[in-house]
Amino acid sequence: MVTDRDDLRRRLDRATAHLEPPFAVVDLDAFDANAAALARRAAGKPIRIASKSLRCRPLLRRALGRPGWRGVMAYTAAEAIWLVRAGVTDDVLLGYPTTDRAALAEVAADPDLAATICLMVDSIAHLDLVDTVAAPGRRAELRVCLDLDASWRPLPGRLGSRMHVGAYRSPVHSAAAAGALAAAIAGRPGFRLVGLMSYEAQIAGLGDAPPGQAVRGAAIRLLQRRSYRELLRRRAAAVAAVREHADLEFVNGGGTGSLALTAADPAVTELTAGSGLYGPVLFDAYRAWRPTPAAFFALPVVRRPGAGVATLLGGGWIASGPAERSRLPRPWLPPGLRLTRTEGAGEVQTPVTGAAADALRVGDRVWFRHAKAGELAEHVEEIHLVAGDRVVETVPTYRGEGGSFL
Questions:
Q1: Which residue among 43, 227, 278, 316 has the highest number of C-beta atoms inside a 10 angstrom radius?
Q2: How would residue 239 be classed by pLDDT, with cut points 50, 70 and 90?
Q3: What total number of domains does the chain contain?
Q4: Rounded to an integer, what distance in angstroms lies between the CA atom of residue 325 and that of residue 181?
């Protein structure tokens, strides 16, 4: 029986017949469909695109040109400067605090950069560091955003800090702590507090339907429901406490995995997403919404060591995070292939087995999906953009432009 995946394989093979693998492609029809679906899930709130999830300036521009998308969340100060100077955007929020003194000095010395880049802070130490780079009276006023920790601490008091559900991000967890830091920022010359961000990693970044793990999935969903209810109350209180000291322009939250849920929070004024545009493997474990796979990479079959096995060149494009199978790329086309448990995805070779392996010949290609999104771009210098059954454009990745920021 011919499936949609069989059709996709034939289309990608026809489009890239002139290319030698390994290489990466993005299916523009799927990319655009994902962008539209995410905008609908945002329910009218603007989506700030997470640049780390694309790492390709032409594709950032494409997403920002679509309805519902506005501004960039960058992951380093140097990247933010690069994007602004290239005209990709005039609205950048740093997703993480920076200690890059050279980049801070550049932002502080340029009123245009200072007006378009918002720094992330979660402690007085971040303000102190900036002041050591450029004294308040000798630089432009810098825009800053307060990072509110969105993790769930179900136990009270000191025990709560020991039971931490979520990412280890900001030390600012309570509304009182957020208000205190806001007051301190308001009292510091040279800074203007314009935003608050809280990223609920335990909801947005954790799939609630892991394949073959029904009990674990049910436990994750229970955790997420309770965490969300607690965060609704705490985030609203924190925003109110911060507004006593600053006129906030935005309250940012969410990610691809929690977009609709976070959009329903009245305290949140804008959302962040990015991974859903590429549709990587990790989102196969989400119930609420699964993006259409849009980003792929191809590896060549270079030998057939035995019945039921084909060996590919390279393939060890492993995603960051805990060292487990969920971080491995997945052979996707042709359907019916799997990695071996003994070799996984290797530095110079990757064997695949399964029902489709015996039909592969030396010189054929196998299409993979990366476990995460933007990290795919760290392995290639360009991405081939496919529409229908042809490559319509080849664009550079960050790496291809020399933009290696992490």
A1: 278
A2: very high
A3: 2
A4: 40
- Identify the CATH number of the domain in which residue 137 sits: 3.20.20.10
Prior bond to 97 cis, omega within 30? no
Q: How would DSSP label each residue in 136-175?
A: GGGSPPEEEEEE----B--S-HHHHHHS-BS----S--SH
Tokens representing residue 40 in the block: 């609908």
Distance of alpha carbon 342 from alpha carbon 37, whole angstroms = 38
**pLDDT at residue 96 greater than cutoff 80:** yes
Dihedrals phi, psi of 325, to nearest 5 degrees: -60, -25
DSSP per-residue codes, 97-135: ----HHHHHHHHH-HHHHHHEEEEESSHHHHHHHHHHS-
The amino acid sitting at 280 is: P
pLDDT of residue 347: 95
Q: Judge contact between 304 and 367, C-beta under 8 A.
A: no
- pLDDT for position 78: 98
Are residues 267 and 298 located together in one domain of the fold?
no
pLDDT of 157? 65
What is the average per-residue pLDDT within 155-166? 72
- Tell me which residue has tokens 């999906």: 369
Do 264 and 307 belong together in one domain? no
Render pLDDT for 123-153 as a digit per residue (tens, 0 to 9).
Answer: 999 999 999 999 999 999 999 999 999 999 8
- Computed over every residue of the chain, the mean pLDDT equals 95
Do 204 and 338 lie in one domain? The reply is no
Residues 204 and 353 in one domain: no
Q: Please tell me whether residues 73 and 130 are part of one structural domain.
A: yes
- Give CA–CA dist 392/31, Å, rounded: 14
User: Residue 368 is part of which domain span?
Assistant: 4-11+14-22+294-398
Q: Over range 17-21, report the average pLDDT.
A: 97
Cβ partners under 8 Å of residue 75, min gap 6: 51, 52, 94, 95, 96, 405, 406
Residue 163 predicted with pLDDT over 90: no
Residue 268 sits in the same domain as residue 304: no
pTM value surpassing 0.85: yes
> What CATH number is attached to the domain comprising 378?
2.40.37.20
